[in-house]
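Progress report, Aim 2. The chain analyzed during this reporting quarter is listed below.
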Amino acid sequence: MILPIGPIHPGLKEPLRLKLETEGEKVVKAEIDYGYVHRGIEKIMEGKTWQKGIFLAERVCGICSYEHTQTFAETIEKISDVDVPLRAHFLRVLTNELDRIQSHLLANSTFFKTLDHETLFMQSLDLREPIMDSIELLTGNRVNMGWNVVGGVKMDADDSHFKPILKNLDIVEERLQRYTELFAEGPLIALRSKNVGKMTKEEAIRGRAVGPIGRASGIKHDLRNDHHVYKDYFDFNVIWRKEGDNYARTMNRLDEIPECISLIRQAIENMPKGEVRIKADIKSGYAEWRNEAPRGEVAYMAETNGNLIKHISIRTPSIMNIDSCAKYMLKDVPTVTDAIATYASADPCIACAERVSIVDEKGNSTVKNFYEVV
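Predicted C-alpha cells for the chain:
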C-alpha cells in the first residue's frame, strides 16, 4: 500500500510529503514531494547590492545561516580580488565551528525525539545552550548573526569574548562525553538505529550525499580541507565511518564536535593581530565558491554587475541528502516508525532545498531544484 506522511505531520519539522510504499510494516520504496515552502530567494537577490544579498543569503537556512553569509561573502571577495585580513578569517573559523556544534546537537536531538528517547533529546538541547550563548556573546545574535561582510567581519572580539567561550567549551566537552557514551552503549538506541537506514558508500556517491551523511557512509571528504585558511593554519581530522546507518550518521555528528572544539581553541590561542574588515570595491565578474556547512557542501555561483548582483545560484546540501534518503536510506526500512527516524537522521532542511521559482511563458510559477534548473 502507499502510505502518505505529511506535508503536515508531528514527525516532520518542516512541510514535506513522504510517500512510502509498504508491504505490511516494511518500507520497500519511498518518494519525496517538495514544493510547500519555496520562496525564490535567488530571484529576489537579482538587482540587489551585496549588502541586501548577504541579508537574504542568511535567510536561506536558519540553522546553516552563518555559513551562507560566509560563502556569499567569499564568492564576492573572489570576484573583486578582496584580500580579507587574517584576523577576520580566524574569527570566521571560530564562529563557523560554534555554529557547527549547535547544528549537530540540534540535528541529533531531533533524531533522539523520533526514537522517543526523551532523555537524550532534552540533554542535547540543554547542551546546545552554552554554544548558543557563546554565539550571542560574540555576534550579538543567536541565529541570524549578521556577522560576515564582504571584506571581513562586522566587529572585533577580545578576551572578554574569548574567555567565556572557552569556559563554555569546557562545559560542553565534559557533558558531551557522557551523552556520547549513553548513545553509543544504549541497547534501545542500538536496536532502533544500528543496521537501520543503511546507505553504502557506492550509493552515497551516486546520491551525491555530502557532509556527515556522506562521511557516515565512508566518503572521507570535508571541504574544510580545501579552504586555504583551514589548510594553512589549522590542524583537524576528518571524521568518518563505514556503517552508513542511522547510528553512524548520529555518531559522526557527535564525534565531529570535539574536532570543532579543537578548532575553536586553536583560533583563539593563535588569533593574529590586525584589522577585521577592509573596504571592498565590488567589481563585475563571475565566481564560484564552496564551503563546508554543518550539513555539508554549500556552493554559491554569482555574477555581478558592479555593486549589483546580476545572477546567483545556490546549491545547498539538503537537496542531495534528502534525495539520497529517499532513494537509498528509506529502502527496506523495517517499520514505518523507523522510516521517520531514518528521515530525521539525514538532518533535512526543506527551506534551503526549495528556493528557485521558475515562471513559464504563461506566467505560471513552478518549483524546481538546482539540478533541474542548471
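The chain has 15 helices and ten strands. The CA atoms of residues 187 and 246 lie 14 Å apart. These observations will guide the mutagenesis work planned for the next reporting period.
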